[in-house]
């Protein structure tokens, strides 16, 4: 039976092939069969995680909390120099110049990406906006969030900063960011479930040296990463505590 | 800026719960909370700061070296009623999350408002400290808090 690898559904579409290369790279380096399962729905992925169908996951920080505290997963690595940040943007023609200019009744375009949505809602608090006085439009991906803004069907949109930066120049030129988070300590995490734990040491050593050789660097580049860093148990507990403070 | 800002400078004796006290220079001038940032700190169970992120260093006006090893009450502004902090400590002592609006004192005597959340850090069933995360409050919440706290002094 192969072990199962999955990736938080918030990865950029351009990096799908990178995750397949990564899976092939891991199988060769570790000498074990691994099956990669990708999802386009956070809910379906969470359901499979709870049913024990996942052994290794590149998780968003929000799900990392559930994986560590409820399901006994262990955080092993984090992507080097890659924090998760959120951008609130509006159409370039919007009269809003800051978050505080957004009014009750505003329509907010978002995705079901839990970190970005949570951070976006937190950054709206300074305008006295919350679930009770805005209308939320949840879309499949960030390109659709941008299109909804450009068509005038939403007043503001939440983006993962990396996804915002990777939108085409043409689309970005039609939008303006009102605020960009600068948190620095919330990031994705590679976590191993109980069935993967006998391969942990080999996995850590493979990933730590990945950026040192050409094949590894090519795979990383295709995933939009520059390397991996070790994550201690306390590092992951700290990040989970921090996320707990952000969830009401 | 708060409508209450006068820019006046005064010296105030602040007494802390552990019996220590200090004379602080208070300047009635608000420093705006920076957009998009979270101020993050951790303390040990006694309230001694063990971690401070850059936003905390920048907003407090202290260096990281000055903050680490110091009691978190160094940020306490004399306009904050003691009852607000009692509520905080009573809540986290029960293992629960506390949230509230706090006027913090900077090293230079000016102040900044935050929406603060404090949670106990539990490791293997033991309390090892507290994490506090502060974010930007709305002007209406600041006005409400100014009015409420003035009645509790």
Automatic annotation (TrEMBL), chain A:
SUPFAM superfamilies: Periplasmic binding protein-like II. This is ABC-type phosphate/phosphonate transport system periplasmic component.
Automatic annotation (TrEMBL), chain B:
Gene3D superfamilies: PAS domain (3.30.450.20). Keywords: Receptor. PROSITE patterns: PAS (PS50112). Residues 44-79 form the PAS domain. The keyword Cell membrane does not apply. Transmembrane segments: none annotated. InterPro entries: PAS, PAS-like_dom_sf, PAS_fold_3. Pfam families: PAS_3. This is Aerotaxis sensor receptor protein.
């Amino acid at each position: 039976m192969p072990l199962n690898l999955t990736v938080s559904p918030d990865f950029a579409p351009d990096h799908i092939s990178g995750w397949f290369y990564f899976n092939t790279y891991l199988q060769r380096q570790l000498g074990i069969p691994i099956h990669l399962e990708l999802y386009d729905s956070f809910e379906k992925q969470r359901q499979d995680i709870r049913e024990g169908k996942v052994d290794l996951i590149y998780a968003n920080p929000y799900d990392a909390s559930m994986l560590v505290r409820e399901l006994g997963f262990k955080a092993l690595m984090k992507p080097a120099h890659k924090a998760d940040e959120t951008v609130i943007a509006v159409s370039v023609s919007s009269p809003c110049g800051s978050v505080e200019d957004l009014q009750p009744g505003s329509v907010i375009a978002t995705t079901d990406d839990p970190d970005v949505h949570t951070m976006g809602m937190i950054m709206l608090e300074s305008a006295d906006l919350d679930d009770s006085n805005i209308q939320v439009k949840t879309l499949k991906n960030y390109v659709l969030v941008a299109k909804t803004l450009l068509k005038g069907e939403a007043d503001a949109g939440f983006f993962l900063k990396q996804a915002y930066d990777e939108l085409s120049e043409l689309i970005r030129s039609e939008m303006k960011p009102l605020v960009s988070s600068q948190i620095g300590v919330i990031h994705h995490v590679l976590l191993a479930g109980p069935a993967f734990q006998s391969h942990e040491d080999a996995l850590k050593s493979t990933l730590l040296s990945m950026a040192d050789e050409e094949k590894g660097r090519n795979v990383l580049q295709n995933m939009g990463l520059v390397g991996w860093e070790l994550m201690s148990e306390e590092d992951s507990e700290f990040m989970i505590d921090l996320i707990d403070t952000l969830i009401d | 800026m708060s409508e209450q800002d006068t820019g006046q400078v005064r010296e105030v004796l602040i007494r802390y719960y552990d019996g220590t006290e200090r004379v602080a220079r208070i300047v009635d001038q608000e420093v705006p909370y920076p957009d998009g940032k979270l101020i993050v700190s951790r303390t040990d169970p006694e309230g001694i700061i063990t971690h401070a992120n850059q936003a905390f260093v920048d907003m407090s006006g202290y260096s990281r070296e000055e903050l680490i090893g110091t009691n978190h009450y160094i940020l306490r502004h004399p306009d904050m009623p003691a009852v607000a902090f009692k509520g905080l400590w009573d809540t986290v002592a029960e293992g629960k999350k506390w949230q509230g609006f706090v006027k913090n004192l900077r090293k230079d005597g000016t102040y900044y408002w935050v929406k603060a959340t404090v949670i106990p850090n539990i490791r293997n069933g033991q309390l090892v400290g507290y994490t506090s995360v502060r974010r930007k409050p709305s002007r209406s919440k600041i006005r409400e808090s100014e009015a409420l706290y003035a009645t509790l002094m």
